[in-house]
## 1
Amino acid sequence: MKCFSLEGRVAMVTGCNKGLGQGLALALAEAGADIVGVSRQSADDTRRQVEHLGRRFYPIEATLGEDAPAHIIERALAQTGKLDILVNNAGTIRRAEALTFSEEDWDAVIDVNLKAAFFLAQAAAQHLIGRGSPGKIVNIASLLSFQGGIRVPSYTASKSGLLGLTRLLANEWAAHDINVNAIAPGYMATDNTQALRDDPERHDAILERIPAGRWGTPEDLAGAVVFLCSDAARYVHGHALAVDGGWLGR
């Protein structure tokens, strides 16, 4: 359907060298978008797959939480001339009991998951509004945007904050025809959940609660991100779409 096409659009995806970010980038490319890939390390594998789909890939190596978000957007615009879509996917996690959780681990997670996401969105929106163009911003939230979890205090705080931020930005930018929404993935088979999947007790307890009966994969987010970044979602603002195998409905 034409309303789901992303032909002619440029999408920035952070943390796209592997895992969910790679899956999101490939989904957008398959829908017709060129990709600006922001990652700490080389994203050559993602680049090859995007180019195999017939789309352009513009790599930007940057460390979120250290490199200025406005400068990252500037580097992208120097290569592409425009941005239409921002997917704030990059994230990090630190695990420890709340009684012993360190300030260093708190700051490391908040700086990447929340602070960098906000200032990237701000810089992208400034570009879109200055250009007089509609745009899409999708923040990758989490089940812990809705639940407390255990042993991940800064991650829970960052993802809860990201959901609130999604709603605030939607309130402010909807009038500019910028859709700000979120995707809340469930338990996905990625590096961030490796510790859980390696713990037989936690693995089995999590799997038992997922109605779909399996861990999610990056491909499971493809339809959600294409929808939210397309004209099909023009009247969707401030929404968090859970892609969780039914976890939240259990």
## 2
Amino acid sequence: MSAAGGSAARWGQEQRAATRKGLWRRLTAALGVNPAARRADARAADCDAGAVGEQRTAALLRPLEEAGWLVLHDRSIPGARSANADHVGVSPGAQVFLVESKLWSAKWPVYERGGTLWHGNADRSQSVRSVLYETDLVARAVGAPVQPVIVMHNAPVPGKGFFVRGVPVVPAGRLVEVLVGNDGPQDPVSASALARRAAAVLLPH
């Protein structure tokens, strides 16, 4: 089973390494006069934060695994060129959830305005578009409806969370409560078949 945050961490390392090939690039990067390295370092820092967020979410989801959920981390999505599923959970009630981890700065809150996700003054609508795209592809792959959830680490979330374009955005402390609360009656046969299907088609990224 792939580890949570593994592909994000690898991508960050590759970004840094690509701009430091050769002695001259390494030297200019060390001196801070390599613009490509600075840009790569900024992208890599985002990847590192993403990896940490995914690892934190994986820790939150561990009790669900112990309670009979199938939880898959960092999975490739059939039909997606590069996107991956941070976490996919199949519940005992045969419900499928796609959990997208976000670790954003605690300096600014996240909120919905005009159907758009905001982090302070930053428009984060691309994050919602991405999770909806991934949800559609995962649903096709597993042959069942999929409910997306964005779990927010660090950045304050008002109240108990909110919806953006039908996607719940919840603080990390409420993730398990939200998932369990949206499960259905236990259906061991359907859940087992769905879990096998998900594990077979959503391969490690």
